[in-house]
Amino acid sequence: MPPSEFFSHLFCLLLTCNFLAVHSKMLKQFFAIHAQIGTTSSTAVDPLLELGKIAKSNSIWFHVDAAYAGSACICPEYRGYMNGVEEADSFNMNAHKWFLTNFDCSALWVKDRSALIQSLSTNPEYLKNKASQENLVVDYKDWQVPLGRRFRSLKLWMVLRLYGLEKLQAYIRNHIELAKLFEELVAQDKRFEIVTPRKFSLVCFRLRPPPSNEDYANKLNHDLLDSVNSTGKLFISHTLLSDRYILRFAVGAPLTEERHIVGAWKVLQDEAATLLSKC
Ligand SMILES: Cc1ncc(COP(=O)(O)O)c(C=O)c1O
């Protein structure tokens, strides 16, 4: 880099730092730290306690997204993944993902509702009423952009009443056991590898690359996904982790049983064998 370019970059950096220092208080209001319990791609879990402390010491909003894996935290043995959640300003889980509630129903918790109310409240004459003015009701219109909202909590209430805690825990545990079974089947087959440690009911795996041909592995796994899904017997999805094409096997349907897992694995093995025989 020529010196002039170097100094112009340095100048820009100093200017940016100065700007950030002056406006950091203002800027902090625009930023949030967003941690996940169960990322979409591979269900990884962020260290909430550490992130929460950073957020707190910088007065930054700390949101925890547990859209899918929040459901598992109804079981005491998985609650450890939530350690540090007490630092959160807001927390979300989607009951429509893994909690037997029909689409859509997301539960959002906020530590301090006043931040939402200050930003979103509206109080025209035609909305005024005795119950609101005497603070007898929570006006959710002040927590969101639209005024109206569907009665989604009714679906969740029905699920909670119908199943109860123990049955919901058994439901989650069963899916995790089934995913463990799938993981064990994959691990026993030397042609495959488990790519990330399984935490919940998602297994990330792939066909191992042929010796010293990592690039080819992506195409191979892509082809395997296509051929498995074209059988119509099961549906798997994929992701990219560190540029590697990874297959995702998720257990989440209420009627899935062990025989479906074993059957799915057989389809995967058969399709893999056909593909590998062409290599
Ligand atoms: C961790 C996480 N957050 C948020 C979402 C978004 O979910 P939805 O669009 O159903 O609200 C997903 C979807 O898969 C997710 O896995």
Automatic annotation (TrEMBL):
Q: Which segment of the chain is annotated as a signal peptide?
A: 1-24
InterPro entries, per the entry: Aromatic_deC, PyrdxlP-dep_de-COase, PyrdxlP-dep_Trfase, PyrdxlP-dep_Trfase_major, PyrdxlP-dep_Trfase_small, Pyridoxal-P_BS
Look up the record and name the cofactor or cofactors this protein needs. Answer: pyridoxal 5'-phosphate
Q: Which UniProt keywords apply?
A: Decarboxylase, Lyase, Pyridoxal phosphate, Signal
Record keywords: Cell membrane included? Answer: no
Keyword Lyase assigned to the entry: answer is yes
Alphabetically, the GO molecular function entries are: carboxy-lyase activity
The family database entries (PANTHER family) matched by this protein are listed as: GROUP II PYRIDOXAL-5-PHOSPHATE DECARBOXYLASE, MIP05841P
Q: Which family does it belong to?
A: Belongs to the group II decarboxylase family.
The name of this protein is Tryptophan decarboxylase
Organism of origin: Solanum stoloniferum
